[in-house]
User: What shape does this take?
Amino acid sequence: INIPFEELIKVEGNESIKSMHEYFNNVQPTKKNEYTGKYKGKNLILITAEGFSPYAVNKDLTPTLYKMQEEGFKFKNFYTPLWGVSTSDGEYVACTGLLPKEGIWSFYKSSNNYMPFAMGNQLKKLGYETKAYHNHYYNYYFRNESHPNLGYTYKGLGNGLDVTETWPESDLEMIDLTVAEYIDTQPFHVYYMTVSGHLQYNFYGNYIAAKNRDMVENLPYSDNVKAYLACNIELDKAMEKLIDELEKKGIAQDTLIAISPDHYPYGLTLTELSELANKEIKTDFDLYKGVFLLWSKGMEAVEVDKYCSSLDIIPTLSNLMGLEYDSRLLMGRDILSDSEPLVLFSDRSWITDKALFNVKTGEVKSLTNENIDKYIEEIEKTVKDKFKYSAMILESDYYKILK
Assistant: This one.
């Protein structure tokens, strides 16, 4: 976007805002690429899936999720970091392309801000029908304030989404109840925050796990791992129903579906996660290895090796949808562009295509044979700046200043 940063810098009297103008003016924007506008004008369904994991994608247990993974964009090095204040921080990152500010509820704080790059606001401006749903209490984490501000007509349990009140509630039932509200109004953009994958993972206090227990009963896992898988079978059933309805309407090929977790399933112990993954999961980067399903019926499968994370979802979708957004003003980057990869973690650890830096251990693992001492300093500054200026965007309502 043509933002006159040089002029803004000259007239800005607030030193903090001036520093933001200077920073964003110097950020290198991402370039358009072969995927720019590939889904322009198409429908978009964006889903943040509670406690979802790559280890819940299974050819036999969750065949629809598996099909989406194998037939869509296959992100082999996708991460879902865990943030500090609340689990809604993971949803905030996936929905805004910004890093949460430490010590506050960032999504709630954003409720009063101008949020032009949220998919709801971007697509609503283009005439899309924009709706959001959550199958637990509508005001949990103040989503009734944050989500309308993202451009959605929002419903949850208690304000119009009449799902059966269980714990947790059914993702399948949510899809059953909502598809008819938008499928005949194209183009549409729908956002779902699911809850069927929520902890605790057991068969006596988790309604969804108990509901699907017979499908996991004979698996060679401990009960908690079985319960986790049973919860994700409900998500798979929901996606099967959703895709079936899109196919009946003849618009599956005109609809892009994006699914990512809010966080890894921390309701499982490290031992149980390792059991689920069939390999040892360590308390470093392995723990945050995530999954991003991006699929449309009939598309040609694309393998993506690039290191990426939930922070990159909004710029990636914006590019695919052919939207006029400003990549400089987001903390993530379009995964499918030629931008250098950077995965950030809350403790300031990071991963690029050249190195992995673990703050807890102080260890730097080089992925190349070149001298990277100067490179490490540069990346550390980049990471520090991204956290700093992302927090300042939230605190100052910076997008509104640029409006």
In short: DSSP finds 14 helices and 14 strands in the chain. The longest helix spans residues 223-249.
